[in-house]
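Figure S7 source data.
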Amino acid sequence: MAATAAASGRRRGRQEERRVTTRSGIDALLLLDDLHPSLRDESLDSMNFLNEVSTRYPDAISFAAGRPYEGQFDVELVHLYLREYRRYLIQQRGFDAERVRRAFFQYGPTKGLITELVARNLELDEGIRVDPESIVVTVGCQEAIVLALRALRADERDVVLAVTPTYVGLTGAARLVDMPVIAVRSGPEGIDLDDLADQVRAARESGLRPRACYLLPDFSNPEGVSLDLPTRRALLDLADDQDLLLLEDNPYGLFGMEDERPPTLKALDDRHRVVYLGSFAKTGLPGARVGYAVADQQVARCDGTSGLFADELSKIKSMLTVNTSPIAQAVIAGKLLCHGCSLIAANAAEIGIYRRNLTHILDGLSRRFADRTDVTWNIPRGGFFLVMTVPFVADDAAMERSARDFGVLWTPMHHFYPGSTGMRQLRLSCSLLDPELIDEGLDRLAAFIADHPPT
Ligand SMILES: Cc1ncc(COP(=O)(O)O)c(C=O)c1O
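C-alpha coordinates for the predicted pyridoxal-5'-phosphate complex:
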Protein backbone atom coordinates (compact mmCIF):
# COMPACT_ATOMS: atom_id res chain seq x y z
CA MET A 1 0.00 0.00 0.00
CA ALA A 2 2.75 2.38 1.08
CA ALA A 3 4.76 1.44 -2.04
CA THR A 4 1.76 2.19 -4.29
CA ALA A 5 1.25 5.58 -2.66
CA ALA A 6 4.94 6.37 -3.11
CA ALA A 7 4.81 5.34 -6.77
CA SER A 8 1.77 7.50 -7.47
CA GLY A 9 3.47 10.38 -5.64
CA ARG A 10 6.51 9.96 -7.90
CA ARG A 11 4.25 9.94 -10.97
CA ARG A 12 2.52 13.13 -9.84
CA GLY A 13 5.93 14.72 -9.28
CA ARG A 14 7.10 13.84 -12.80
CA GLN A 15 3.88 15.24 -14.32
CA GLU A 16 4.19 18.49 -12.39
CA GLU A 17 7.74 18.94 -13.66
CA ARG A 18 6.50 18.65 -17.25
CA ARG A 19 3.55 21.00 -16.82
CA VAL A 20 4.06 24.32 -18.62
CA THR A 21 2.10 27.50 -18.05
CA THR A 22 1.23 29.26 -21.28
CA ARG A 23 1.07 33.04 -21.77
CA SER A 24 -2.69 32.95 -21.29
CA GLY A 25 -2.17 31.26 -17.91
CA ILE A 26 -3.38 27.82 -19.04
CA ASP A 27 -1.55 24.76 -17.71
CA ALA A 28 -0.35 22.57 -20.60
CA LEU A 29 0.74 18.95 -20.23
CA LEU A 30 2.22 18.56 -23.67
CA LEU A 31 4.85 20.48 -25.59
CA LEU A 32 4.27 20.89 -29.31
CA ASP A 33 7.99 20.29 -29.79
CA ASP A 34 7.52 16.79 -28.32
CA LEU A 35 4.80 15.88 -30.84
CA HIS A 36 5.24 14.78 -34.45
CA PRO A 37 7.13 17.46 -36.46
CA SER A 38 4.30 17.62 -39.04
CA LEU A 39 2.23 19.41 -36.40
CA ARG A 40 4.59 22.38 -36.66
CA ASP A 41 4.40 22.38 -40.44
CA GLU A 42 2.43 25.10 -42.21
CA SER A 43 0.93 22.68 -44.70
CA LEU A 44 -1.12 21.05 -41.95
CA ASP A 45 -2.53 24.43 -40.96
CA SER A 46 -3.46 25.50 -44.49
CA MET A 47 -6.87 23.88 -44.78
CA ASN A 48 -7.90 24.79 -41.23
CA PHE A 49 -6.76 28.38 -41.69
CA LEU A 50 -8.71 28.80 -44.93
CA ASN A 51 -11.85 27.21 -43.43
CA GLU A 52 -11.51 29.32 -40.31
CA VAL A 53 -11.34 32.60 -42.28
CA SER A 54 -14.42 31.55 -44.30
CA THR A 55 -16.30 30.91 -41.03
CA ARG A 56 -15.30 34.28 -39.63
CA TYR A 57 -16.64 36.12 -42.69
CA PRO A 58 -19.76 34.14 -43.59
CA ASP A 59 -21.12 36.96 -45.78
CA ALA A 60 -18.02 37.13 -47.94
CA ILE A 61 -18.44 35.71 -51.45
CA SER A 62 -16.04 32.81 -51.67
CA PHE A 63 -13.83 32.09 -54.64
CA ALA A 64 -11.76 30.07 -52.15
CA ALA A 65 -13.69 26.85 -51.62
CA GLY A 66 -12.97 24.05 -54.10
CA ARG A 67 -16.28 22.42 -53.19
CA PRO A 68 -18.79 21.00 -55.63
CA TYR A 69 -21.94 22.91 -56.61
CA GLU A 70 -24.70 22.46 -54.04
CA GLY A 71 -27.76 23.21 -56.18
CA GLN A 72 -28.26 19.51 -57.01
CA PHE A 73 -28.04 18.26 -53.40
CA ASP A 74 -31.24 16.45 -52.45
CA VAL A 75 -31.55 14.26 -49.35
CA GLU A 76 -34.13 12.07 -51.12
CA LEU A 77 -31.38 10.98 -53.51
CA VAL A 78 -29.49 9.33 -50.62
CA HIS A 79 -32.51 7.10 -49.96
CA LEU A 80 -32.90 6.39 -53.65
CA TYR A 81 -29.23 5.38 -53.96
CA LEU A 82 -29.38 3.07 -50.93
CA ARG A 83 -32.49 1.35 -52.33
CA GLU A 84 -30.86 1.01 -55.74
CA TYR A 85 -27.79 -0.66 -54.25
CA ARG A 86 -29.98 -3.07 -52.25
CA ARG A 87 -31.89 -3.93 -55.44
CA TYR A 88 -28.58 -4.61 -57.22
CA LEU A 89 -27.30 -6.87 -54.44
CA ILE A 90 -30.50 -8.94 -54.55
CA GLN A 91 -31.22 -9.02 -58.26
CA GLN A 92 -27.76 -8.99 -59.79
CA ARG A 93 -25.54 -10.44 -57.09
CA GLY A 94 -28.01 -12.99 -55.71
CA PHE A 95 -27.81 -11.79 -52.09
CA ASP A 96 -30.54 -12.98 -49.73
CA ALA A 97 -32.06 -10.63 -47.12
CA GLU A 98 -29.62 -11.76 -44.44
CA ARG A 99 -26.55 -11.02 -46.61
CA VAL A 100 -27.96 -7.62 -47.59
CA ARG A 101 -28.48 -6.71 -43.94
CA ARG A 102 -24.94 -7.74 -43.15
CA ALA A 103 -23.50 -5.84 -46.12
CA PHE A 104 -25.12 -2.59 -44.96
CA PHE A 105 -24.70 -2.96 -41.20
CA GLN A 106 -21.57 -4.97 -40.58
CA TYR A 107 -17.86 -4.17 -40.95
CA GLY A 108 -16.93 -4.79 -44.57
CA PRO A 109 -13.94 -6.07 -46.55
CA THR A 110 -10.88 -3.84 -46.20
CA LYS A 111 -10.54 -3.33 -49.97
CA GLY A 112 -14.17 -2.32 -50.23
CA LEU A 113 -17.62 -3.60 -51.19
CA ILE A 114 -17.95 -1.80 -54.50
CA THR A 115 -14.69 -2.51 -56.33
CA GLU A 116 -16.52 -4.18 -59.25
CA LEU A 117 -18.73 -1.14 -59.79
CA VAL A 118 -15.72 1.18 -59.58
CA ALA A 119 -13.93 -0.98 -62.19
CA ARG A 120 -17.01 -0.85 -64.43
CA ASN A 121 -17.16 2.93 -64.09
CA LEU A 122 -13.45 3.31 -64.93
CA GLU A 123 -13.86 1.23 -68.07
CA LEU A 124 -16.97 3.10 -69.18
CA ASP A 125 -15.93 6.70 -68.50
CA GLU A 126 -12.14 6.50 -68.72
CA GLY A 127 -11.30 3.49 -70.85
CA ILE A 128 -9.27 2.16 -67.90
CA ARG A 129 -9.43 -1.64 -67.73
CA VAL A 130 -8.48 -3.02 -64.32
CA ASP A 131 -9.18 -6.09 -62.27
CA PRO A 132 -11.41 -5.11 -59.29
CA GLU A 133 -8.80 -6.89 -57.15
CA SER A 134 -6.38 -4.04 -57.87
CA ILE A 135 -8.76 -1.44 -56.38
CA VAL A 136 -8.83 -0.32 -52.75
CA VAL A 137 -11.85 1.79 -51.78
CA THR A 138 -10.75 4.50 -49.35
CA VAL A 139 -12.12 7.20 -47.07
CA GLY A 140 -11.82 9.86 -49.75
CA CYS A 141 -8.96 10.21 -52.16
CA GLN A 142 -7.02 11.74 -49.29
CA GLU A 143 -6.70 8.35 -47.61
CA ALA A 144 -5.54 6.83 -50.90
CA ILE A 145 -2.75 9.44 -51.03
CA VAL A 146 -1.69 8.62 -47.46
CA LEU A 147 -1.70 4.85 -48.15
CA ALA A 148 0.43 5.22 -51.27
CA LEU A 149 2.98 7.49 -49.60
CA ARG A 150 3.11 5.38 -46.42
CA ALA A 151 3.85 2.27 -48.50
CA LEU A 152 6.50 3.97 -50.63
CA ARG A 153 8.36 5.56 -47.74
CA ALA A 154 10.50 2.63 -46.63
CA ASP A 155 13.35 4.63 -45.10
CA GLU A 156 14.92 8.07 -44.98
CA ARG A 157 16.21 7.84 -48.55
CA ASP A 158 12.71 7.75 -50.06
CA VAL A 159 11.26 10.97 -51.49
CA VAL A 160 8.22 11.87 -53.58
CA LEU A 161 8.26 14.37 -56.42
CA ALA A 162 5.26 16.63 -56.95
CA VAL A 163 4.40 18.89 -59.85
CA THR A 164 4.31 22.26 -58.12
CA PRO A 165 2.24 24.26 -57.24
CA THR A 166 0.62 21.19 -55.76
CA TYR A 167 -2.44 20.16 -53.79
CA VAL A 168 -1.92 20.86 -50.06
CA GLY A 169 -3.32 17.41 -49.20
CA LEU A 170 -0.29 15.82 -50.87
CA THR A 171 2.18 18.02 -49.00
CA GLY A 172 0.41 17.40 -45.69
CA ALA A 173 0.17 13.63 -46.24
CA ALA A 174 3.88 13.49 -47.10
CA ARG A 175 4.69 15.30 -43.85
CA LEU A 176 2.61 12.80 -41.88
CA VAL A 177 4.73 9.93 -43.18
CA ASP A 178 8.01 11.90 -42.96
CA MET A 179 8.49 11.84 -46.72
CA PRO A 180 10.26 14.84 -48.24
CA VAL A 181 8.58 16.38 -51.31
CA ILE A 182 10.76 17.52 -54.20
CA ALA A 183 9.11 20.19 -56.36
CA VAL A 184 8.95 19.69 -60.12
CA ARG A 185 8.15 22.73 -62.27
CA SER A 186 4.71 22.82 -63.81
CA GLY A 187 4.80 25.43 -66.63
CA PRO A 188 2.33 25.86 -69.50
CA GLU A 189 2.47 22.14 -70.43
CA GLY A 190 1.38 21.13 -66.91
CA ILE A 191 4.74 19.48 -66.23
CA ASP A 192 8.29 20.40 -67.17
CA LEU A 193 9.68 17.00 -68.18
CA ASP A 194 13.27 18.24 -68.34
CA ASP A 195 12.96 19.51 -64.80
CA LEU A 196 11.48 16.16 -63.71
CA ALA A 197 14.46 14.31 -65.20
CA ASP A 198 16.87 16.81 -63.61
CA GLN A 199 15.24 16.49 -60.18
CA VAL A 200 15.33 12.69 -60.32
CA ARG A 201 19.01 12.76 -61.32
CA ALA A 202 19.95 15.29 -58.64
CA ALA A 203 18.06 13.35 -55.96
CA ARG A 204 19.79 10.09 -56.92
CA GLU A 205 23.17 11.77 -56.97
CA SER A 206 22.63 12.89 -53.40
CA GLY A 207 21.75 9.36 -52.28
CA LEU A 208 17.96 9.73 -52.29
CA ARG A 209 15.43 7.36 -53.86
CA PRO A 210 12.70 9.18 -55.81
CA ARG A 211 9.82 6.70 -55.62
CA ALA A 212 7.00 8.47 -57.43
CA CYS A 213 5.86 11.71 -59.01
CA TYR A 214 2.45 13.06 -57.95
CA LEU A 215 0.44 15.12 -60.41
CA LEU A 216 -3.03 16.05 -61.66
CA PRO A 217 -2.93 15.70 -65.45
CA ASP A 218 -6.48 17.10 -65.81
CA PHE A 219 -7.53 20.61 -64.68
CA SER A 220 -5.13 20.63 -61.77
CA ASN A 221 -5.69 21.97 -58.31
CA PRO A 222 -4.57 24.75 -57.91
CA GLU A 223 -3.62 25.89 -61.43
CA GLY A 224 -6.31 24.43 -63.66
CA VAL A 225 -3.68 23.26 -66.17
CA SER A 226 -3.82 20.00 -68.16
CA LEU A 227 -1.30 17.81 -69.96
CA ASP A 228 -1.76 17.29 -73.70
CA LEU A 229 -1.53 13.80 -75.19
CA PRO A 230 2.12 13.94 -76.38
CA THR A 231 3.18 15.17 -72.91
CA ARG A 232 1.26 12.29 -71.28
CA ARG A 233 3.01 9.75 -73.50
CA ALA A 234 6.42 11.35 -72.94
CA LEU A 235 5.83 11.35 -69.18
CA LEU A 236 4.97 7.65 -69.18
CA ASP A 237 8.15 6.92 -71.17
CA LEU A 238 10.19 9.00 -68.77
CA ALA A 239 8.67 7.23 -65.75
CA ASP A 240 9.61 3.90 -67.30
CA ASP A 241 13.14 5.04 -68.17
CA GLN A 242 13.66 6.44 -64.69
CA ASP A 243 11.97 3.54 -62.85
CA LEU A 244 9.48 5.88 -61.25
CA LEU A 245 5.81 5.48 -60.34
CA LEU A 246 3.29 8.16 -61.23
CA LEU A 247 0.59 9.04 -58.71
CA GLU A 248 -2.24 10.30 -60.93
CA ASP A 249 -4.86 12.24 -58.95
CA ASN A 250 -7.99 12.93 -60.98
CA PRO A 251 -10.91 14.52 -59.12
CA TYR A 252 -11.77 17.07 -61.83
CA GLY A 253 -11.24 15.14 -65.09
CA LEU A 254 -14.93 15.02 -66.04
CA PHE A 255 -15.35 18.77 -65.89
CA GLY A 256 -13.73 19.84 -69.14
CA MET A 257 -15.12 22.62 -71.33
CA GLU A 258 -15.39 20.13 -74.18
CA ASP A 259 -16.68 16.56 -74.31
CA GLU A 260 -13.49 15.43 -76.04
CA ARG A 261 -10.62 14.85 -73.58
CA PRO A 262 -7.26 13.14 -73.69
CA PRO A 263 -7.01 9.70 -72.05
CA THR A 264 -5.88 9.55 -68.45
CA LEU A 265 -2.33 8.40 -67.78
CA LYS A 266 -3.79 5.19 -66.35
CA ALA A 267 -5.68 4.49 -69.59
CA LEU A 268 -2.34 4.76 -71.44
CA ASP A 269 -0.39 2.84 -68.82
CA ASP A 270 0.62 -0.45 -70.44
CA ARG A 271 3.65 -0.77 -68.16
CA HIS A 272 1.91 -0.49 -64.76
CA ARG A 273 3.69 2.73 -63.89
CA VAL A 274 0.58 4.59 -62.71
CA VAL A 275 -1.16 4.39 -59.34
CA TYR A 276 -4.52 6.04 -60.04
CA LEU A 277 -6.09 8.02 -57.20
CA GLY A 278 -9.84 8.48 -57.54
CA SER A 279 -12.34 10.62 -55.67
CA PHE A 280 -16.14 10.55 -55.63
CA ALA A 281 -16.22 13.89 -53.78
CA LYS A 282 -16.86 15.98 -56.88
CA THR A 283 -18.65 13.38 -59.00
CA GLY A 284 -20.55 11.39 -56.35
CA LEU A 285 -21.12 13.36 -53.19
CA PRO A 286 -18.50 14.79 -50.86
CA GLY A 287 -20.35 13.88 -47.65
CA ALA A 288 -19.96 10.17 -48.43
CA ARG A 289 -16.15 10.51 -48.18
CA VAL A 290 -15.42 7.76 -50.67
CA GLY A 291 -12.41 7.53 -52.96
CA TYR A 292 -10.12 4.76 -54.14
CA ALA A 293 -6.70 3.76 -55.39
CA VAL A 294 -6.02 1.57 -58.41
CA ALA A 295 -2.71 -0.15 -57.67
CA ASP A 296 -2.17 -2.97 -60.17
CA GLN A 297 1.62 -3.13 -59.75
CA GLN A 298 3.11 -6.49 -58.81
CA VAL A 299 5.07 -6.57 -55.57
CA ALA A 300 7.75 -9.27 -55.26
CA ARG A 301 8.07 -10.85 -51.82
CA CYS A 302 11.30 -12.25 -50.42
CA ASP A 303 9.93 -15.84 -50.62
CA GLY A 304 9.77 -15.53 -54.42
CA THR A 305 5.98 -15.06 -54.58
CA SER A 306 4.29 -11.84 -55.65
CA GLY A 307 1.07 -9.95 -55.00
CA LEU A 308 -0.68 -6.74 -55.93
CA PHE A 309 0.40 -3.35 -54.59
CA ALA A 310 -3.34 -2.90 -53.78
CA ASP A 311 -3.03 -5.71 -51.24
CA GLU A 312 -0.15 -3.95 -49.53
CA LEU A 313 -2.14 -0.69 -49.44
CA SER A 314 -5.05 -2.62 -47.97
CA LYS A 315 -2.83 -3.89 -45.13
CA ILE A 316 -2.05 -0.28 -44.21
CA LYS A 317 -5.72 0.66 -44.51
CA SER A 318 -6.67 -2.16 -42.14
CA MET A 319 -4.66 -0.35 -39.47
CA LEU A 320 -5.81 3.16 -40.40
CA THR A 321 -9.55 3.14 -41.08
CA VAL A 322 -10.24 -0.65 -41.02
CA ASN A 323 -12.67 -0.34 -43.93
CA THR A 324 -14.55 2.45 -45.71
CA SER A 325 -18.08 2.89 -44.35
CA PRO A 326 -20.30 0.32 -46.15
CA ILE A 327 -23.24 2.76 -45.95
CA ALA A 328 -21.17 5.46 -47.67
CA GLN A 329 -20.04 2.97 -50.33
CA ALA A 330 -23.66 1.89 -50.83
CA VAL A 331 -24.68 5.50 -51.50
CA ILE A 332 -21.95 5.92 -54.12
CA ALA A 333 -22.72 2.51 -55.64
CA GLY A 334 -26.41 3.45 -55.86
CA LYS A 335 -25.56 6.66 -57.66
CA LEU A 336 -23.39 4.72 -60.11
CA LEU A 337 -26.14 2.13 -60.67
CA CYS A 338 -28.80 4.83 -61.21
CA HIS A 339 -26.71 6.08 -64.15
CA GLY A 340 -25.57 2.82 -65.74
CA CYS A 341 -22.22 3.20 -63.91
CA SER A 342 -21.35 6.37 -65.84
CA LEU A 343 -20.37 9.41 -63.81
CA ILE A 344 -20.42 11.44 -67.02
CA ALA A 345 -24.14 10.65 -67.25
CA ALA A 346 -24.65 11.19 -63.50
CA ASN A 347 -23.01 14.62 -63.73
CA ALA A 348 -24.61 15.91 -66.92
CA ALA A 349 -26.16 18.88 -65.07
CA GLU A 350 -23.02 19.65 -63.04
CA ILE A 351 -20.78 19.49 -66.12
CA GLY A 352 -23.01 22.16 -67.72
CA ILE A 353 -22.94 24.31 -64.57
CA TYR A 354 -19.14 24.18 -64.23
CA ARG A 355 -18.70 25.05 -67.93
CA ARG A 356 -21.10 27.98 -67.56
CA ASN A 357 -19.32 29.20 -64.40
CA LEU A 358 -15.82 28.96 -65.86
CA THR A 359 -16.92 30.84 -68.98
CA HIS A 360 -18.64 33.44 -66.80
CA ILE A 361 -15.66 34.07 -64.53
CA LEU A 362 -13.21 34.27 -67.47
CA ASP A 363 -15.49 36.75 -69.31
CA GLY A 364 -15.96 38.71 -66.09
CA LEU A 365 -12.22 38.96 -65.52
CA SER A 366 -11.66 40.18 -69.09
CA ARG A 367 -14.32 42.86 -68.69
CA ARG A 368 -13.00 44.14 -65.37
CA PHE A 369 -9.25 43.95 -65.92
CA ALA A 370 -8.87 44.51 -69.69
CA ASP A 371 -6.92 47.75 -69.15
CA ARG A 372 -4.61 46.33 -66.44
CA THR A 373 -1.50 44.76 -67.94
CA ASP A 374 -0.24 44.03 -64.42
CA VAL A 375 -3.21 41.80 -63.56
CA THR A 376 -3.19 38.51 -65.49
CA TRP A 377 -4.77 35.07 -65.24
CA ASN A 378 -4.57 31.72 -67.00
CA ILE A 379 -7.36 30.24 -69.13
CA PRO A 380 -8.03 26.65 -68.02
CA ARG A 381 -9.84 24.28 -70.37
CA GLY A 382 -11.98 22.97 -67.53
CA GLY A 383 -12.15 22.19 -63.82
CA PHE A 384 -12.81 24.42 -60.83
CA PHE A 385 -9.73 26.63 -60.62
CA LEU A 386 -7.75 29.42 -62.24
CA VAL A 387 -4.78 31.46 -61.06
CA MET A 388 -4.53 35.26 -61.08
CA THR A 389 -1.27 37.18 -60.82
CA VAL A 390 -1.45 40.60 -59.15
CA PRO A 391 1.17 43.35 -58.66
CA PHE A 392 1.20 43.14 -54.84
CA VAL A 393 1.71 40.52 -52.14
CA ALA A 394 -1.43 38.37 -51.94
CA ASP A 395 -0.69 36.54 -48.70
CA ASP A 396 -2.91 35.40 -45.81
CA ALA A 397 -3.05 38.93 -44.34
CA ALA A 398 -4.16 40.33 -47.73
CA MET A 399 -6.78 37.60 -48.00
CA GLU A 400 -8.12 38.42 -44.57
CA ARG A 401 -8.29 42.14 -45.48
CA SER A 402 -10.08 41.21 -48.67
CA ALA A 403 -12.68 39.22 -46.69
CA ARG A 404 -13.11 41.81 -43.96
CA ASP A 405 -13.10 45.07 -45.94
CA PHE A 406 -14.30 43.95 -49.37
CA GLY A 407 -16.39 40.83 -48.64
CA VAL A 408 -14.59 38.52 -51.04
CA LEU A 409 -12.49 35.41 -50.37
CA TRP A 410 -9.85 33.71 -52.49
CA THR A 411 -6.93 31.39 -51.78
CA PRO A 412 -3.37 32.72 -51.50
CA MET A 413 -1.27 30.62 -53.88
CA HIS A 414 1.71 30.42 -51.53
CA HIS A 415 -0.11 27.58 -49.72
CA PHE A 416 0.54 25.39 -52.77
CA TYR A 417 4.29 26.07 -52.98
CA PRO A 418 7.19 25.30 -50.67
CA GLY A 419 8.85 28.38 -49.15
CA SER A 420 7.75 31.85 -50.18
CA THR A 421 6.95 31.29 -53.86
CA GLY A 422 3.59 32.33 -55.32
CA MET A 423 3.25 35.39 -53.13
CA ARG A 424 1.69 37.48 -55.91
CA GLN A 425 -0.76 34.88 -57.06
CA LEU A 426 -4.21 33.88 -55.94
CA ARG A 427 -6.43 30.92 -56.79
CA LEU A 428 -10.03 31.53 -57.80
CA SER A 429 -12.59 28.75 -57.73
CA CYS A 430 -16.01 29.17 -59.31
CA SER A 431 -17.57 25.75 -58.62
CA LEU A 432 -19.83 26.75 -55.74
CA LEU A 433 -21.27 29.98 -57.16
CA ASP A 434 -24.01 31.12 -59.52
CA PRO A 435 -23.37 33.73 -62.25
CA GLU A 436 -24.92 36.58 -60.17
CA LEU A 437 -22.61 35.82 -57.24
CA ILE A 438 -19.63 35.49 -59.58
CA ASP A 439 -20.43 38.99 -60.90
CA GLU A 440 -20.83 40.48 -57.43
CA GLY A 441 -17.70 38.67 -56.21
CA LEU A 442 -15.65 39.93 -59.17
CA ASP A 443 -16.84 43.51 -58.53
CA ARG A 444 -15.62 43.16 -54.96
CA LEU A 445 -12.35 41.59 -56.09
CA ALA A 446 -11.81 44.43 -58.58
CA ALA A 447 -12.37 46.96 -55.76
CA PHE A 448 -9.87 45.11 -53.54
CA ILE A 449 -7.25 45.03 -56.31
CA ALA A 450 -7.85 48.70 -57.19
CA ASP A 451 -7.23 49.53 -53.51
CA HIS A 452 -3.77 47.92 -53.66
CA PRO A 453 -1.14 49.99 -55.46
CA PRO A 454 1.60 47.90 -57.11
CA THR A 455 4.46 47.20 -54.69
C1 LIG B 1 -6.37 17.40 -56.06
C2 LIG B 1 -7.17 16.80 -54.97
N1 LIG B 1 -6.89 15.57 -54.55
C3 LIG B 1 -7.58 14.99 -53.56
C4 LIG B 1 -8.60 15.67 -52.94
C5 LIG B 1 -9.31 15.00 -51.80
O1 LIG B 1 -10.35 14.24 -52.26
P1 LIG B 1 -11.34 13.55 -51.24
O2 LIG B 1 -12.33 14.58 -50.82
O3 LIG B 1 -11.94 12.44 -52.06
O4 LIG B 1 -10.54 13.04 -50.10
C6 LIG B 1 -8.95 16.96 -53.35
C7 LIG B 1 -10.03 17.68 -52.68
O5 LIG B 1 -10.32 18.81 -52.88
C8 LIG B 1 -8.22 17.54 -54.40
O6 LIG B 1 -8.45 18.77 -54.85
